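re: ur question from yesterday

yeah so i grabbed the chain u mentioned. its 290 aa long if i counted rite. heres the sequnce exactly as i have it in my notes:
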Amino acid sequence: MEQRQNRSRNSKAARDAEARRRAQKAAQRKPKPRKKRRAVRVKNHRFWKDLFIMLAITVAVILSISIFFKVKTVDVTGMEYYNAEQIRAASGIMQGDNLLTLSKATAASKIQAELPYVREVQIKRELPSRVVIAVKEFDVSYAVKDAQGNDWLITAGGDLLEQVDARTASEHVAVTGFTVHDPVAGQQFVVQATQEDAASTAQQQAVVKLLSALEQSDIADHVASIDVSASFDLSFWYGDQFHVLLGTADELEYKLQYLSEVIKNLDSYASGEIDVSFSNERKAIFRSEQ
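ran it thru and got these structure tokens back, copy pasting raw so excuse formatting
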């Protein structure tokens, strides 16, 4: 009987000890959920605070763009043929436009499309309210005729500039041997086809190659007239002193450099024909008129 009572007491003591152990574990676990909830609340608070700051900055930037940075002045540099007001009007940039959102590429394209004498355009923004348009115009232009006999000016790159009268055309280097088909200012010239379209295209390409090569050479200022009767038969007059035969449009830069050296070695009073076409051999042939 006494043993049963001892076992009962021991069992009760064990149960009490287990109950106390569980209570202690439960007490230790209770604060943890509160800490987690507090961390979540702090994290949410920071998120909304950061979001509010970002929204405030965005609103401030938008307001500054739309209110503060307005175009007040548009300055133009580099013009000779056109005046500043013509270039401003062609650009489409107006006082009151937003300085930061205006398209520089669009404005430059408008200028070159409307004003064919403009070769290059650079546009800069200067905070808080200034735009600077820097243009470069074509220095040299050449005179050609269309199928109706009208005179037109073209650039070395083959762009048609404008129709002019005969007196104005005579002030420029004449390019002959072809006529221009349906000329439109601001567009590339097209050779009037006489036989085959392929031949006309080759002739047009030869003209552009020759004019561009002359522009890069040191004899451009001495050229009096140019003849491009065919893409394989290029020639020009060096003043009234030398008739220069170039042949095809191949190696034009080299041919013009070679020509320059030949002229330096000729007597100042010499005149005649200089053949640098290299049709037979790679050397210049001088045929004197005297």
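noticed a couple things. The CA atoms of residues 143 and 153 lie 5 Å apart. also The chain has a mean pLDDT of 86.
anyway ttyl
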